[in-house]
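Need a sequence for this fold. Nothing fancy.
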């Protein structure tokens, strides 16, 4: 698989929807993740990321304009011990509760499927980062309709053991803009990573479509110590 420029992938796609990047910094010292949300409707755009415990949640920027909270208000990031869970919906809680009961990442998601927002049937994308005793691995998942057919759910899990320094994987909800929106296809894209969290945050944010971007979360975790740094960027201020 050829390594792609994350910057070019973002700049060339006006509407990837929501996206998760997980990987390792080029110096091999940090586990890195980014999660961004975009929106086309006023309801989707009326959001910000706020910190909650070791994770984050979405909330309405202007509560008076909140229409339907069901698919837009959730905790995208939660931490369970040495595991960091990142998703595009309330399946964060499903994974957290499942793994807390010793289920695997994949088993925890068996009770969920794509979002009930026909005709798009937005995929549920999820990731989990596991750091233990100086070792790091991660997995990503996508639950999607069968080519727009909501009668069938296709489930894909991708696991990355001992990831290579400087490499990351990028998965997003939509291939591009459209009506209905076409679901992501294939395995997560191999993309380049950066050592500096601020430079990485700026690159991702500035590469997202100016009209559609809403919020961005970035976290770098020291693989040796578990200490982390977080950046949050919200378009609404």
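Here you go.
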């Amino acid at each position: 698989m050829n390594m792609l420029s994350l910057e070019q992938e973002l700049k060339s796609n006006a509407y990837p929807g929501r996206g998760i990047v997980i990987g390792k910094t080029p110096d091999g010292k940090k586990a890195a993740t980014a999660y961004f949300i975009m929106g086309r409707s006023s309801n989707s755009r009326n959001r910000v990321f706020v910190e909650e415990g070791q994770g984050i949640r979405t909330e309405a920027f202007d509560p008076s304009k909140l229409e339907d909270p069901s698919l837009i208000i959730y905790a995208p990031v939660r931490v369970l011990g040495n595991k960091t869970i990142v998703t595009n919906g309330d399946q964060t809680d499903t994974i957290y509760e499942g793994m807390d009961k010793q289920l695997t990442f994949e088993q925890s998601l068996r009770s969920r499927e794509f979002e009930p927002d026909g005709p798009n049937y937005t995929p549920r994308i999820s990731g989990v980062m596991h750091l233990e005793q100086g070792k790091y691995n991660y997995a990503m998942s996508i639950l999607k309709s069968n080519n727009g057919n909501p009668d069938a759910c296709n489930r894909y899990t991708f696991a990355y053991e001992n990831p290579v320094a400087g490499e990351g994987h990028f998965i997003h909800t939509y291939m591009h803009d459209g009506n209905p929106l076409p679901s992501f296809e294939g395995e997560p894209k191999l993309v380049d990573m950066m050592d500096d969290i601020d430079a990485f945050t700026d690159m991702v944010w500035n590469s997202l479509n100016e009209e559609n971007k809403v919020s961005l979360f970035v976290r770098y975790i020291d693989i040796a110590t578990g200490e982390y740094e977080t950046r949050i960027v919200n378009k609404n201020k």
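For context: DSSP finds five helices and 13 strands in the chain.
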